[in-house]
Amino acid sequence: MKRILYLMIFLVLTGGFVSEVKAQGEAAVPFLLLAPDSRAGGIGESGGGLADNSSAVFWNPAGIAFLTGSEVSITHSNWLPQFNLDLFYEYLTYRQYIEDIGGSFTASITYMNYGEFIRTDDSSPDPIGTFRSFDAALTLGYAAKVSNDWGLGFNFRLIHSRLADQGAGYEKGEGVATSVSFDIATMWRPTHFDIPFVADLSNKFSMGINLSNLGPKIYYIDQAQADPIPTNFRLGFAVKLMEDQYNSLTYTLDFSKLLVDKGTAFRGVVDTVTENKNERDDFYKAIFTAWADEPFNEELRDIVTSMGLEYWYGEPSDFMFALRGGFFYEDPSYGNRKFMTLGAGLRYDIYGFDFSYITTDVFEGGENHPLNNTLRFTVSMGWGPTTKASQGFPRGI
């Protein structure tokens, strides 16, 4: 039951309709990969280089090293509205700068509700009961500058997954698992960066690297059925294209790749049921071997690309509003998520509100894609001596 239920939850969660099953379907707790906040959601889910608010806990915790003050935010989304299912996503973040130590402590809570399922036994399809499923994670972190232009960020995460309250058939135990993971990230945000004959990008450029969800395999029934968690590499860029007293325009670009050993089942062996999960590389090996477990052209296709534009108008000390747009692309053989995003935001004093919208209507057959019409809503509040609600680096910092 665990395998069937988990595969169903994975497909529903990601909205992936794949022509070939790849590593993403074999990584447990895929909710850890969901873009959590509305701001980055509006720019194509490309926040690895921007990372200048409390949601950087997910995108790149090192970006918080360049922030002071305090901030709290909460995001809500009814996930995959096309399915009309009882799926919803909640994301709560907090960051606190402490001057005495020159860094910020951070925290986030992620909760994914999968709704109610009907239980049957092996002998009959007739219902014998119901149960609810959910995934949750608590993340604690720290970020600080190591120089004027460089920041480092670290996260520790407790993961709890409850797919079912009991096993099926002869399986012993419950469909419940708990594990841990950690993230390590860096951010380069140069105060002086003049490219001769091209542009002066001083205080206008940012580059971040985030290696997230590093941790042991997770299992529900026994260790023989263990799956890796979704270790992910993200490289992000952000460039301030224009800025004056009232206007700013920022371009973002992210590349991400899942660093999970695909196992023998994805190298030609089709009997995934009898595959020994424990033969697959652990995370400390997979972060290297996952770059070369397929031909080079296949490895390039495994990289997800996302980008976006964010425009702000207003006075940072008073009222501002933002318009956002973006594009997300995943190869058809590795998930086939392809969508446009739109978003908007408001800032007044310490308060902020953002929303984002996913549309697949612009692509052939996209009107029936389960991600179509997905909305996220975020409310935030930022306070402190130098930081109000985030308006984009370095403006308002």
Topology:
Blueprint lengths: L1 H13 L23 H5 L13 H4 L10 E9 L9 E11 L4 E19 L2 E22 L4 E15 L10 E14 L5 E2 L3 E2 L4 E10 L17 E12 L3 E12 L24 H7 L6 H6 L2 E11 L4 E11 L8 E11 L2 E9 L15 E9 L14
Antiparallel strand pairs: 1-2, 1-16, 2-3, 3-4, 4-5, 5-6, 6-9, 7-8, 9-10, 10-11, 11-12, 12-13, 13-14, 14-15, 15-16
What does the model show?
This protein has 397 residues and is mostly beta strands. It has a single domain, classed as Porin (Beta Barrel), CATH 2.40.160.40. Helix content is 9%, strand content 45%. It has five helices and 16 strands. The chain has helices spanning 2-14, 38-42, 56-59, 283-289, 296-301; strands at 70-78, 88-98, 103-121, 124-145, 150-164, 175-188, 194-195, 199-200, 205-214, 232-243, 247-258, 304-314, 319-329, 338-348, 351-359, 375-383. A 14-stranded antiparallel beta barrel has the order 1-2-3-4-5-6-9-10-11-12-13-14-15-16. The chain has a two-stranded antiparallel ribbon with strand order 7-8. A hairpin with a 4-residue loop joins strand 12 (304-314) and strand 13 (319-329).
Provide a compact summary of the structure:
The protein is mainly beta and 397 residues long.
Strand order of the largest sheet: 1-2-3-4-5-6-9-10-11-12-13-14-15-16
What is the CATH domain class? Mainly Beta
Return Rg in Å: 21 Å
Q: Which second-level CATH architecture applies?
A: Beta Barrel
Q: Which regions contain 5 or more consecutive residues with pLDDT less than 50?
A: 1-8, 15-24, 264-275
Number of domains: 1
User: What is the H/E order?
Assistant: HHHEEEEEEEEEEEHHEEEEE
End-to-end distance? 50 Å
Could you tell me the CATH topology label. Porin
- Helix/sheet category: mainly beta
Number of helices: 5
Biggest beta sheet attributes: 14 strands, antiparallel, barrel
